[in-house]
């Protein structure tokens, strides 16, 4: 199996990079954020996962080993294949996914293209004990972070979901008064409701 690829970016697309490794161009499918960080002609190093099918060998690349491990773990959920797992990491970071699963935040999970309510519930159930706990993420007892820190966590999470920094900051400002305790998960849900209006 190919666990990592290091070489020169020969071509960069929206969600793929061709990496020249000693004269061999390897097509690596990536989340858009990873492809956006690569530049044609520049060195690139990716943690990879190779998916073997009867008629294909496909390489998926990630910025960190943690992202790759999350990609592989997501595929242990029934009904989640490589494309959906890649879509999850295109919308959520590993920490955001862990937080959403720990809080059973179905609304956040259904933001991922290809995941409906039932799929999100299945992901929350099947990954609950497999993903690492994230500091600041709500659990069944509710974990709080300091008043200033939760706003930064929620803003970063919203940006990771595809909202602009301004949209995210405005939404966080609107829910700030109600969430002084710093419950990140409930604040994130409230901010998403604001943005959905």
From TrEMBL:
Limits of the Helix-hairpin-helix DNA-binding motif class domain: 72-91, 107-126
Key words, A-Z: Cytoplasm, DNA damage, DNA recombination, DNA repair, DNA-binding
A GO CC term assigned to this protein in UniProt: Holliday junction helicase complex
Locations listed in the record: Cytoplasm
CDD domains in alphabetical order: UBA_RuvA_C (cd14332)
Region listing for Domain III, in residue ranges: 152-197
A GO term, aspect molecular function: four-way junction DNA binding
HAMAP family noted in UniProt: DNA_HJ_migration_RuvA
Subunit structure and binding partners: Homotetramer. Forms an RuvA(8)-RuvB(12)-Holliday junction (HJ) complex. HJ DNA is sandwiched between 2 RuvA tetramers; dsDNA enters through RuvA and exits via RuvB. An RuvB hexamer assembles on each DNA strand where it exits the tetramer. Each RuvB hexamer is contacted by two RuvA subunits (via domain III) on 2 adjacent RuvB subunits; this complex drives branch migration. In the full resolvosome a probable DNA-RuvA(4)-RuvB(12)-RuvC(2) complex forms which resolves the HJ.
Cross-referenced NCBIfam families: ruvA
Described function: The RuvA-RuvB-RuvC complex processes Holliday junction (HJ) DNA during genetic recombination and DNA repair, while the RuvA-RuvB complex plays an important role in the rescue of blocked DNA replication forks via replication fork reversal (RFR). RuvA specifically binds to HJ cruciform DNA, conferring on it an open structure. The RuvB hexamer acts as an ATP-dependent pump, pulling dsDNA into and through the RuvAB complex. HJ branch migration allows RuvC to scan DNA until it finds its consensus sequence, where it cleaves and resolves the cruciform DNA.
Protein name: Holliday junction branch migration complex subunit RuvA
Species of provenance: Janibacter limosus
């Amino acid at each position: 199996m190919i666990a990592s690829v290091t070489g020169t970016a020969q071509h960069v697309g929206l969600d793929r990079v061709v990496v020249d490794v000693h004269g061999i161009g390897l097509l690596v499918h990536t989340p858009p954020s990873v492809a956006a960080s690569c530049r044609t002609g520049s060195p690139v190093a990716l943690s990879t996962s190779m998916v073997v099918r009867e008629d294909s060998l496909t390489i998926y690349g990630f910025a960190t080993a943690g992202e790759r491990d999350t990609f592989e773990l997501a595929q242990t959920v029934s009904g989640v294949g490589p494309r959906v797992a890649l879509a999850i990491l295109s919308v959520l970071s590993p920490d955001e996914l862990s937080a959403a699963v720990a809080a059973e935040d179905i609304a956040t999970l259904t933001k991922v293209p290809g995941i409906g309510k039932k799929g999100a519930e299945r992901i929350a159930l099947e990954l609950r004990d497999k993903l690492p706990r994230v500091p600041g993420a709500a659990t069944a007892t509710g974990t709080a972070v300091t008043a200033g820190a939760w706003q930064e966590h929620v803003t970063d999470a919203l940006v990771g979901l595809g909202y602009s920094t301004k949209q995210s900051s405005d939404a966080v400002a609107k829910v700030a008064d109600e969430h002084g305790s710093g419950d990140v998960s409930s604040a994130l849900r409230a901010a998403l409701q604001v943005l959905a209006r």
